[in-house]
Amino acid sequence: MTPSASDEIPAPYGTGSREVPSSLSPGRPAARVRIHHLAAAKDRSEHFAMLTAYDQYTAQIFDEAGIDVLLVGDSAANNVFGHETSIPVTVDELIPLCRAVARSAHRALVVADLPFGSYEASPAQGVETGVRFLKEGLAHAVKMEGGAYYAETVRAMVQAGIPVIAHIGFTPQSEHALGGYRVQGRGDDVARLIEDAKALEAAGAFCVLMEMVPAAAAASVDAAVRVPTIGIGAGSSTTGQVLVWQDMAGLRGGEGTRISKFVKQYADLRGQLLDAARRYRDDVRSGAFPGREHSF
Protein backbone atom coordinates (compact mmCIF):
# COMPACT_ATOMS: atom_id res chain seq x y z
CA MET A 1 0.00 0.00 0.00
CA THR A 2 1.37 3.41 -0.93
CA PRO A 3 1.64 5.72 2.08
CA SER A 4 -0.51 8.85 1.94
CA ALA A 5 0.88 12.35 2.24
CA SER A 6 -0.24 12.39 5.87
CA ASP A 7 2.23 9.57 6.54
CA GLU A 8 5.20 11.81 5.77
CA ILE A 9 7.31 12.77 8.75
CA PRO A 10 6.32 16.35 9.62
CA ALA A 11 9.05 18.93 9.10
CA PRO A 12 9.91 21.67 11.58
CA TYR A 13 7.90 24.75 10.70
CA GLY A 14 9.72 26.96 8.24
CA THR A 15 12.49 24.53 7.21
CA GLY A 16 11.14 23.96 3.74
CA SER A 17 12.45 20.37 3.76
CA ARG A 18 8.91 19.04 3.54
CA GLU A 19 5.54 20.62 2.95
CA VAL A 20 4.07 21.91 6.21
CA PRO A 21 0.33 21.26 6.72
CA SER A 22 -1.68 24.32 5.71
CA SER A 23 -3.62 24.17 8.97
CA LEU A 24 -0.55 25.44 10.82
CA SER A 25 -0.48 29.09 11.67
CA PRO A 26 2.79 30.99 11.15
CA GLY A 27 5.13 30.49 14.07
CA ARG A 28 3.40 27.36 15.30
CA PRO A 29 5.17 23.99 15.35
CA ALA A 30 4.47 21.34 12.74
CA ALA A 31 2.35 18.29 13.44
CA ARG A 32 3.66 15.66 15.85
CA VAL A 33 5.72 12.78 14.51
CA ARG A 34 3.74 9.59 15.08
CA ILE A 35 4.43 5.87 14.91
CA HIS A 36 2.85 5.54 11.47
CA HIS A 37 5.23 8.18 10.12
CA LEU A 38 8.18 5.98 11.07
CA ALA A 39 6.57 2.93 9.50
CA ALA A 40 5.93 4.87 6.30
CA ALA A 41 9.57 6.01 6.24
CA LYS A 42 10.68 2.37 6.05
CA ASP A 43 8.14 1.68 3.30
CA ARG A 44 9.67 4.51 1.27
CA SER A 45 13.29 3.54 2.10
CA GLU A 46 13.74 6.87 3.89
CA HIS A 47 15.53 7.52 7.17
CA PHE A 48 14.75 9.30 10.43
CA ALA A 49 17.01 10.78 13.08
CA MET A 50 16.87 10.07 16.82
CA LEU A 51 18.86 11.62 19.67
CA THR A 52 18.77 11.36 23.42
CA ALA A 53 17.53 14.37 25.39
CA TYR A 54 17.23 14.84 29.13
CA ASP A 55 16.22 18.48 29.66
CA GLN A 56 14.19 21.40 28.38
CA TYR A 57 16.78 23.22 26.29
CA THR A 58 18.25 20.29 24.39
CA ALA A 59 14.71 19.05 23.69
CA GLN A 60 13.76 22.45 22.25
CA ILE A 61 16.94 22.69 20.16
CA PHE A 62 16.74 19.17 18.75
CA ASP A 63 13.01 19.58 18.07
CA GLU A 64 13.67 22.79 16.15
CA ALA A 65 16.49 21.08 14.25
CA GLY A 66 14.07 18.44 12.99
CA ILE A 67 15.22 15.45 15.03
CA ASP A 68 12.29 13.07 14.61
CA VAL A 69 12.53 11.02 17.82
CA LEU A 70 13.86 12.06 21.22
CA LEU A 71 14.90 9.31 23.63
CA VAL A 72 14.94 9.98 27.35
CA GLY A 73 17.44 7.19 27.81
CA ASP A 74 18.60 5.30 30.84
CA SER A 75 21.91 6.63 29.53
CA ALA A 76 21.05 9.59 31.78
CA ALA A 77 22.71 7.44 34.43
CA ASN A 78 26.17 8.02 32.97
CA ASN A 79 25.48 11.27 31.10
CA VAL A 80 23.50 13.21 33.71
CA PHE A 81 23.81 11.55 37.11
CA GLY A 82 27.50 10.64 37.03
CA HIS A 83 27.26 6.82 37.22
CA GLU A 84 29.68 4.59 35.34
CA THR A 85 26.88 2.53 33.74
CA SER A 86 23.16 2.80 33.04
CA ILE A 87 22.23 0.21 35.66
CA PRO A 88 21.77 2.43 38.77
CA VAL A 89 19.24 4.92 37.33
CA THR A 90 15.66 4.58 38.57
CA VAL A 91 12.17 5.22 37.24
CA ASP A 92 11.70 8.03 39.75
CA GLU A 93 14.86 9.73 38.47
CA LEU A 94 13.93 9.42 34.80
CA ILE A 95 10.31 10.55 34.97
CA PRO A 96 11.08 14.24 35.73
CA LEU A 97 13.58 14.29 32.86
CA CYS A 98 11.02 12.73 30.54
CA ARG A 99 8.37 15.24 31.59
CA ALA A 100 10.74 18.14 30.83
CA VAL A 101 11.53 16.79 27.36
CA ALA A 102 7.89 16.03 26.52
CA ARG A 103 6.77 19.49 27.59
CA SER A 104 9.45 21.14 25.47
CA ALA A 105 9.30 19.16 22.21
CA HIS A 106 6.30 20.03 20.05
CA ARG A 107 7.11 17.90 17.00
CA ALA A 108 9.34 14.96 17.95
CA LEU A 109 8.08 11.61 19.17
CA VAL A 110 9.26 11.30 22.78
CA VAL A 111 10.36 7.83 23.93
CA ALA A 112 11.26 6.87 27.50
CA ASP A 113 13.65 4.07 28.44
CA LEU A 114 12.50 1.47 30.95
CA PRO A 115 15.46 1.26 33.35
CA PHE A 116 16.98 -1.90 34.77
CA GLY A 117 14.72 -3.53 37.35
CA SER A 118 11.51 -1.91 36.17
CA TYR A 119 10.08 -4.62 33.85
CA GLU A 120 12.03 -7.88 34.24
CA ALA A 121 9.93 -9.43 37.01
CA SER A 122 6.73 -9.86 35.01
CA PRO A 123 4.60 -8.45 32.18
CA ALA A 124 2.50 -6.77 34.86
CA GLN A 125 5.55 -4.90 36.14
CA GLY A 126 6.34 -3.78 32.60
CA VAL A 127 2.80 -2.48 32.13
CA GLU A 128 2.90 -0.65 35.45
CA THR A 129 6.19 1.05 34.58
CA GLY A 130 5.07 1.90 31.07
CA VAL A 131 1.87 3.47 32.37
CA ARG A 132 3.89 5.66 34.73
CA PHE A 133 6.07 6.95 31.89
CA LEU A 134 3.03 7.80 29.75
CA LYS A 135 0.98 9.30 32.59
CA GLU A 136 3.63 10.98 34.73
CA GLY A 137 6.45 11.37 32.22
CA LEU A 138 4.14 12.39 29.33
CA ALA A 139 6.08 10.08 26.99
CA HIS A 140 4.51 8.90 23.76
CA ALA A 141 6.22 5.48 23.80
CA VAL A 142 8.75 3.45 25.75
CA LYS A 143 11.84 1.41 24.92
CA MET A 144 12.88 -1.79 26.65
CA GLU A 145 15.90 -4.05 26.32
CA GLY A 146 15.77 -7.79 25.76
CA GLY A 147 15.09 -10.48 23.19
CA ALA A 148 12.31 -12.96 22.50
CA TYR A 149 12.10 -13.84 26.20
CA TYR A 150 10.35 -10.50 26.76
CA ALA A 151 7.80 -10.91 23.97
CA GLU A 152 4.99 -11.50 26.45
CA THR A 153 5.93 -8.33 28.31
CA VAL A 154 5.85 -6.37 25.07
CA ARG A 155 2.50 -7.91 24.16
CA ALA A 156 1.00 -7.00 27.53
CA MET A 157 2.25 -3.43 27.28
CA VAL A 158 0.98 -2.95 23.74
CA GLN A 159 -2.41 -4.38 24.71
CA ALA A 160 -2.49 -1.85 27.53
CA GLY A 161 -2.00 0.97 25.02
CA ILE A 162 1.75 1.50 25.54
CA PRO A 163 3.73 1.73 22.27
CA VAL A 164 7.04 -0.14 22.57
CA ILE A 165 10.42 -0.01 20.88
CA ALA A 166 12.35 -3.25 21.38
CA HIS A 167 16.13 -3.07 21.95
CA ILE A 168 18.29 -6.04 20.93
CA GLY A 169 21.95 -6.73 20.15
CA PHE A 170 24.17 -5.25 22.83
CA THR A 171 21.89 -4.35 25.72
CA PRO A 172 23.74 -2.11 28.21
CA GLN A 173 21.60 -3.19 31.17
CA SER A 174 22.97 -6.71 30.66
CA GLU A 175 26.62 -5.70 30.34
CA HIS A 176 27.66 -7.90 33.28
CA ALA A 177 25.91 -10.93 31.82
CA LEU A 178 27.36 -10.22 28.37
CA GLY A 179 30.90 -9.81 29.68
CA GLY A 180 31.20 -6.10 29.02
CA TYR A 181 30.70 -3.91 25.97
CA ARG A 182 30.89 -6.51 23.20
CA VAL A 183 29.58 -6.57 19.66
CA GLN A 184 26.63 -8.94 19.29
CA GLY A 185 25.39 -10.90 16.26
CA ARG A 186 28.68 -12.16 14.88
CA GLY A 187 28.70 -15.33 12.81
CA ASP A 188 25.90 -17.77 13.57
CA ASP A 189 24.54 -15.47 16.29
CA VAL A 190 22.75 -13.42 13.63
CA ALA A 191 20.05 -16.12 13.57
CA ARG A 192 19.29 -15.38 17.22
CA LEU A 193 18.98 -11.68 16.51
CA ILE A 194 16.54 -12.37 13.69
CA GLU A 195 14.45 -14.65 15.92
CA ASP A 196 14.43 -12.00 18.65
CA ALA A 197 13.37 -9.26 16.24
CA LYS A 198 10.60 -11.32 14.68
CA ALA A 199 9.23 -12.41 18.06
CA LEU A 200 9.20 -8.83 19.35
CA GLU A 201 7.59 -7.57 16.15
CA ALA A 202 4.90 -10.27 16.47
CA ALA A 203 4.31 -9.15 20.06
CA GLY A 204 3.56 -5.63 18.84
CA ALA A 205 6.82 -3.65 19.02
CA PHE A 206 6.61 -0.80 16.49
CA CYS A 207 10.41 -0.51 16.07
CA VAL A 208 13.42 -2.70 16.76
CA LEU A 209 16.59 -0.94 17.91
CA MET A 210 19.92 -2.71 17.39
CA GLU A 211 23.08 -1.70 19.23
CA MET A 212 26.66 -2.74 18.39
CA VAL A 213 25.71 -5.24 15.70
CA PRO A 214 27.76 -5.89 12.54
CA ALA A 215 26.33 -4.00 9.58
CA ALA A 216 25.62 -7.19 7.60
CA ALA A 217 23.80 -8.77 10.54
CA ALA A 218 21.73 -5.63 11.08
CA ALA A 219 20.80 -5.62 7.39
CA SER A 220 19.59 -9.22 7.72
CA VAL A 221 17.47 -8.32 10.73
CA ASP A 222 16.01 -5.28 8.97
CA ALA A 223 15.07 -7.42 5.98
CA ALA A 224 13.38 -9.98 8.22
CA VAL A 225 10.91 -7.57 9.86
CA ARG A 226 8.36 -5.14 8.48
CA VAL A 227 8.69 -2.61 11.29
CA PRO A 228 11.40 0.05 11.13
CA THR A 229 14.76 -0.70 12.69
CA ILE A 230 16.97 1.82 14.48
CA GLY A 231 20.72 1.50 14.64
CA ILE A 232 23.43 2.60 17.03
CA GLY A 233 26.62 1.02 15.82
CA ALA A 234 24.61 -1.16 13.42
CA GLY A 235 25.55 0.14 9.99
CA SER A 236 23.45 2.09 7.50
CA SER A 237 20.69 -0.38 6.60
CA THR A 238 18.38 0.65 9.42
CA THR A 239 15.56 3.14 8.92
CA GLY A 240 16.60 5.25 11.91
CA GLN A 241 19.86 6.16 13.60
CA VAL A 242 20.30 7.16 17.25
CA LEU A 243 23.19 8.64 19.22
CA VAL A 244 23.63 9.94 22.75
CA TRP A 245 23.59 13.69 22.23
CA GLN A 246 26.63 14.36 24.44
CA ASP A 247 28.62 12.03 22.18
CA MET A 248 27.23 13.54 18.97
CA ALA A 249 27.98 17.12 20.05
CA GLY A 250 31.34 16.47 21.71
CA LEU A 251 30.30 17.36 25.24
CA ARG A 252 31.53 14.12 26.78
CA GLY A 253 35.30 13.91 26.85
CA GLY A 254 38.33 14.67 28.90
CA GLU A 255 41.38 12.64 29.81
CA GLY A 256 40.86 8.88 29.56
CA THR A 257 37.45 9.14 27.87
CA ARG A 258 36.87 6.55 25.16
CA ILE A 259 34.56 7.45 22.29
CA SER A 260 32.82 4.49 20.63
CA LYS A 261 33.75 3.66 17.04
CA PHE A 262 30.18 4.24 15.88
CA VAL A 263 30.06 7.84 17.15
CA LYS A 264 30.50 10.79 14.81
CA GLN A 265 31.10 14.07 16.64
CA TYR A 266 29.49 17.08 14.97
CA ALA A 267 30.79 19.73 17.39
CA ASP A 268 33.22 20.31 20.25
CA LEU A 269 30.87 21.62 22.92
CA ARG A 270 33.21 20.52 25.69
CA GLY A 271 35.97 22.69 24.27
CA GLN A 272 33.65 25.64 23.73
CA LEU A 273 32.21 25.47 27.25
CA LEU A 274 35.66 25.05 28.75
CA ASP A 275 36.87 28.14 26.92
CA ALA A 276 33.79 30.16 27.94
CA ALA A 277 34.13 29.16 31.60
CA ARG A 278 37.80 30.12 31.64
CA ARG A 279 37.12 33.52 30.09
CA TYR A 280 34.32 34.13 32.61
CA ARG A 281 36.67 33.16 35.45
CA ASP A 282 39.33 35.53 34.19
CA ASP A 283 36.86 38.42 33.85
CA VAL A 284 35.56 37.91 37.38
CA ARG A 285 39.04 37.69 38.88
CA SER A 286 40.22 40.79 37.02
CA GLY A 287 37.12 42.81 37.80
CA ALA A 288 36.17 43.14 34.14
CA PHE A 289 32.82 41.51 34.86
CA PRO A 290 30.35 42.82 35.72
CA GLY A 291 30.90 46.07 33.85
CA ARG A 292 28.75 49.18 33.94
CA GLU A 293 26.61 47.76 31.12
CA HIS A 294 25.74 44.76 33.34
CA SER A 295 24.76 46.85 36.38
CA PHE A 296 21.50 48.56 37.32
TrEMBL record:
Keyword check for S-adenosyl-L-methionine: no
Any one GO molecular function term: magnesium ion binding
One of the Pfam families matching this protein, by short name: Pantoate_transf
Binding residues for Mg(2+): 74, 113, 145
InterPro entries: Pantoate_hydroxy_MeTrfase (IPR003700), Pyrv/PenolPyrv_kinase-like_dom (IPR015813), Pyrv_kinase-like_dom_sf (IPR040442)
Enzymatic reactions: (6R)-5,10-methylene-5,6,7,8-tetrahydrofolate + 3-methyl-2-oxobutanoate + H2O = 2-dehydropantoate + (6S)-5,6,7,8-tetrahydrofolate
Swiss-Prot/TrEMBL cofactor(s): Mg(2+)
Note accompanying the cofactor annotation: Binds 1 Mg(2+) ion per subunit.
Binding site for 3-methyl-2-oxobutanoate: 74-75, 113, 143
Compartments, as annotated in UniProt: Cytoplasm
Involved pathway(s): Cofactor biosynthesis; (R)-pantothenate biosynthesis; (R)-pantoate from 3-methyl-2-oxobutanoate: step 1/2
Region of interest (Disordered), residue spans: 1-28
Keywords of this entry: Cytoplasm, Magnesium, Metal-binding, Methyltransferase, Pantothenate biosynthesis, Transferase
Superkingdom assignment: Bacteria
GO cellular component terms given for this protein: cytoplasm
GO biological process: methylation; pantothenate biosynthetic process
Active site: 211 (proton acceptor)
EC number: 2.1.2.11
Family: Belongs to the PanB family.
Matching NCBIfam families: panB (TIGR00222), PRK00311.1 (NF001452)
Role summary: Catalyzes the reversible reaction in which hydroxymethyl group from 5,10-methylenetetrahydrofolate is transferred onto alpha-ketoisovalerate to form ketopantoate.
Assembly and binders: Homodecamer; pentamer of dimers.
Protein name: 3-methyl-2-oxobutanoate hydroxymethyltransferase
Species per Swiss-Prot/TrEMBL record: Sinomonas humi
